[in-house]
Structure formats: C-alpha cells, structure tokens
Amino acid sequence: MILKWLIALMAITYTQVEAARILGLIWTFSRSHHIAGSTLLKELAKTGHEVHLLSTYNDNVDIPNFTQELLTGIIVPGDGMSNPNSSVFTMLFDFVPIMNKNVEKFWENEAVQKLIRTKPKYDAVIVLTFFNDFVLALPHYLKAPTIIYSSMSSNPINNKYVANPSLPYATGLAKNGFFARLNFVTLNVVIYVIEAYFLAPLQNRINEKYLPDVPPIEVLNKNVSLVLINSHYAIEGPRPYVPNMVQIGGFHTREVKKLPENLQTYLDSAKDGAILFSMGTNVKLSKNLQRNQLDAIMSGLGKVAPIKVLFKSEIDIPSAPENVLVSNWLPQNDILAHPNLKVFISHGGLAGTTEAVYHGVPMLGIPFFADQKFNIGSMSEVGLAVTLDVDRITEQTFYAALEELLTNPTYSTNAKKRSSLLKNQPVSSLQKAIWWIEHIIEYKGGEHLRNVGMELEWYHLYMVDVMAFFLALILVVLAISFIVIRWVLRILYNICRGKPKKEKKH
Ligand SMILES: *[C@@H]1O[C@H](CO)[C@@H](O)[C@H](O)[C@H]1NC(C)=O
Ligand SMILES: *[C@@H]1O[C@H](CO)[C@@H](O)[C@H](O)[C@H]1NC(C)=O
Ligand SMILES: *[C@@H]1O[C@H](CO)[C@@H](O)[C@H](O)[C@H]1NC(C)=O
C-alpha cells in the first residue's frame, strides 16, 4: 500500500509540467534523422503533452494528443554527397545550393503558412537542425523557447548554439598527432565559413520575405535553450559538455517491437547465428557500390552459411546466395534485439551504431560519408567493430573481416560491455530527454543555463589572445635577454682586451 502511494507520488513529482503544448519541426531529407526525431515527439505525447509535429515523413500513428502534418517539397541532395571519393569540401559544396533551395520550399508549405497566420501559443518548439538554421525563425516568431534535437554527436554544427567547446576529443583525433588536429580545426573553419558566408546570407533574405522583422540567423542561433544530442559516452569518446547540451543517445532503441511473423521465424530458426546487412536510408547500393563490390559481398556472405543473413537493399539481387534473404525494408532495431544476431554490417550512421551498441551486437563498418568514419572509428577503437573501407572491398577482405568478427569472441565481449554502459544510467536516456524538455518549459527558456561563452568571440573562448600574449611575453623576454647578454659579453670582451692595453700605457 505504502509502496503504491510512493509510486503515485513519484509519478506526480516526475511530471513537473502538466500537458505542455509542444511544436516539432523536422525539416529533413534523411529518413533516419526523421525516425529518431519523431520518436522523441511521440514519446512526449505519450507522457501527456500535446504535440504538434510538422515533418517531411509521415509516421501514420494514432497517439492521443499527437497531431502530425506532412511538409512537402524538400529536395534530396544528389550523389555528390554520398560518393565516398568526394572530399568533405566537394560534399559540402554540392550540398549548399540544395540546402538553400530548401529554404523557400519550407516556407511555401501550407502547414507553415497556417502557423504564421494563426500564431498559436506553444510552450516549446523542438527543431531538428542540420544546415537549416533558418527554421529557428519560426520559434522566434511564435515566441517560444527553442530546443534543438541533433541526430549527430557534438560537433561544430551544433556546438555553436550553446558555446560547447569544439576540441579534438573525438576518438583518435588527439592521439593521431598534429595533422589530425590540423585537419579537425580546418574542418571547423570550413563549416563556419559555409554556414556564415554561403548559407546564412541567402537564408536570411528568404526568411525576411516570409517573416518581416525576423532577426538574422546569427542572432537566432544565440537564443537556443537546449541542445539534445543523439549520442552517449558508451558510443563516442568521452568529451566535455556544457549543461544545456545533453546526451540522450539510445533514447529510441529501448522500445523493441514485435517482429513480423516471417522475420521472427527466420531469425528463430537461425540456430548457427544471423547477420544483418543494412546501409541505412541514405546510402543506396545501386549508386554507392559497384557491381563487383556487391558481388564480392554476396559471395562472402554465401561462404558463412549456415549462418543466415538479412540483407536490406533497395534493388533486387537475383544472384543472392541461399542463406541471404534480401528485403527492401527491415525493422533494424527489432532485428538487432534478436538473441541469434551475431554481426551487424553497417555504414556506421549514428542511429544504427547506437542500436548495435544498445543490443550488444559487434559491427562490420563500411563507412561512406559524413560522421560515419568517426562513428565506426570510435567503435573500432573500443574493440567492438572492424572497419572496411569501401574501395578496399573484395571477396577476400570482406570475408576476412566477417570471419574475424564471427570467430574472435572479444568483439562480442566488448559489445556486451558497451551495451551495459549505455543501459546503466540513473534514468533512461528517454526519461532524461523528457526531464530536460520539461525543465526548459518550466523555467520558460532556461536563461540560467546560458554560459558566458555565448557572449565571447571564439578567440576569447579558446584564449587565443592570452596565448598570443604569453608568446609575445616570451619573445620580449628572449629579446631582452639576448640584448643584455650581448651587452655584457661586449663589456667583458672590452675589459679583457682593454686591460693589457691600459697596462702597456702605464
Ligand atoms: C490531451 O491534452 C489535454 C490538454 O491539452 C489533456 O487535458 C488531456 O488529458 C490529454 N489527453 C491525453 C490522452 O493525454
Ligand atoms: C572512387 O575512386 C576509385 C579509385 O580512383 C574508383 O575506382 C572508383 O570508381 C571511385 N568510386 C566512385 C563511386 O566514383
Ligand atoms: C529568445 O527566446 C525567448 C524564449 O526563450 C523569447 O522570449 C525571445 O523573444 C527570444 N529572442 C529572440 C531574439 O529570438
């Protein structure tokens, strides 16, 4: 009885904010970013909040107090983005014109226009950002605190909202020496230049067309209350976080749904184990892999029979070996949770990597672009994954990597340890996310979390001026020492040479 009361009491104190009105804006071309972001908003509705979600994909769910409206017209970036041969520079420059075109497309949506006309009151707006900061104009217009959800780990793109330090903590970077750090700083600068000089000016102009008197993006960026990061120290290298940047990695992996009948039977019958092959939603096998690479993968997979393989592919593969079941859609998280699953072959997107860690499944990582190399790099570093570069795929290399994962038990041991690190928290990542969102609503924006770094220039924050001062000081001291020593030496020299002369005169 007492226990019952305690539980009831805890439930009451846990929900500090009752039925808040929350708007979600998920303007992304990436299905995997959408899935994680919309999961967060659906969970908020399930805890009793009234959620209105505007998104580019439809979830077709029936949850009380959860209304979803479809945003149309978004343009998906082309192949340049996903070609593993493109440098970061090429990727970004292919990307910029499309991101800018998508600004107009966003505002043209009737659902967005209706928000502008009716100006409803919300207690918070949750925005998914990725090179689309112009969306922040909407929470500003609605006068609601802005919460950002980022499908990536902390990086220069999302650090700027809350002055979280961009330092080379990402696994391997600091240890790989000067050039790795130089590369890291260069990437930071490139991203800054792209955002400030290639995206912001045009996005600002279009914003003004739809919302007169809207402040420029650089001002909007500085009024973000909270950044929720889909990462966790079990998945990435430990690194610093300011209090209003919160790690919620794993929040979407906990709920494992029942598998469709055919997949359940297939996996249950895989007594020797099963493998899941999935390159996510952004990598396309028909474009990103060559025919001979796909053939190499298929024959490598054929060799591991009787182990069964679930293979996600948007194209038919008639040459698939008997132990490989090809499907154009697979419920990844639910499959990874199956006890017979032995290896996850993945491109290393953060969502999939998190799911593999959560369920303790070793990975064979074939990274293509964006943060995938980092994610797989971290996993290799902690002994949970084997990395295989795309252009090194042959039947031999692929089979050797797979064989290593299947026969060496340390990968599974490390995966189980990481899984336990991710699960072993004072509250689940999902509860943590909800607590922080409610905290921002309760304190109407959370001004108390805003750190002083928000007011500083980058060279003040990273104390470049102080280091320059010390460097100058050292140079001055060295110069003075040099002059003094030269002066003393000259006097000594003159004394040594001068004395006998004087003596001769006497
Ligand atoms: C829906 O939201 C309203 C308040 O906005 C609340 O009174 C009601 O209980 C919510 N319904 C559910 C099923 O959570
Ligand atoms: C990437 O470069 C390699 C070597 O230059 C080339 O063989 C391959 O076709 C390229 N891949 C793509 C997808 O363009
Ligand atoms: C900053 O956000 C608060 C709500 O958290 C809002 O009241 C204020 O108008 C915003 N300021 C700007 C410049 O967007």
TrEMBL record:
Catalytic activity: glucuronate acceptor + UDP-alpha-D-glucuronate = acceptor beta-D-glucuronoside + UDP + H(+)
Stored Pfam families: UDPGT
Entry keywords, A to Z: Glycosyltransferase, Membrane, Signal, Transferase, Transmembrane, Transmembrane helix
Gene Ontology molecular-function annotations: glucuronosyltransferase activity
InterPro entries in the cross-refs: UDP-glycosyltransferase, UDP_glucos_trans, UDP_glycos_trans_CS
Compartment list: Membrane
Signal peptide (from-to): 1-19
UniProt xrefs under Gene3D superfamilies: Glycogen Phosphorylase B
Tagged with keyword Repressor: no
Record membrane topology: Single-pass membrane protein
This protein's GO CC annotations: membrane
Transmembrane segments: 466-489
Enzyme Commission code: 2.4.1.17
Domain of life: Eukaryota
Family: Belongs to the UDP-glycosyltransferase family.
Name recorded for this polypeptide: UDP-glucuronosyltransferase
Organism: Cryptolaemus montrouzieri
